[in-house]
Amino acid sequence: MMGARVAWTSEGTRFLDEMTRRTVTSTSVEIPGPAGRLEARLDDTGQDATAVAVICHPDPRQHGTMQNKVVTTLARAFANLSATAVRFNFRGVGVSEG
Question: What is the dihedral of CA 34, 41, 94, 91, to 10 degrees?
Fold first, then answer.
């Protein structure tokens, strides 16, 4: 499946190119910390990553988690751009400890 991607040059002009949508795999991981472990997921396409994107969820007091629609959409978008996306739940959210 092909989709158009909009990008900006250093001069501020816009151009379009084609981007291939890849199958994104989400892997559950635990991040150890001094106050307990954090629940996290790594989203990638299984190919060599060119970058890492750390995505934080909205305020937990407003029911924000790493499963938030905007967070998961960003993770898939970064993975399709050949980056590994890391998303995690803050302490006390989901199964994160602390």
Answer: 30
**For 40-70, what is each residue's pLDDT tens digit?**
999 999 989 999 999 999 999 999 999 999 9
What is d(CA 50, CA 96) in angstroms, rounded to the nearest whole number? Answer: 28
- Look at residue 80 and give its three-state secondary structure: helix
Nearest to 94 by CA among 26, 43, 41: 41
E strands, the chain, in order: 2-8, 14-20, 25-31, 38-44, 51-55, 83-88
Q: Give the distance, in angstroms, between the CA of residue 86 and the centroid of all CA atoms in the same chain.
A: 5
Phi-psi region of 72 (alpha: psi -120 to 50; beta: other; left: phi over 0): alpha
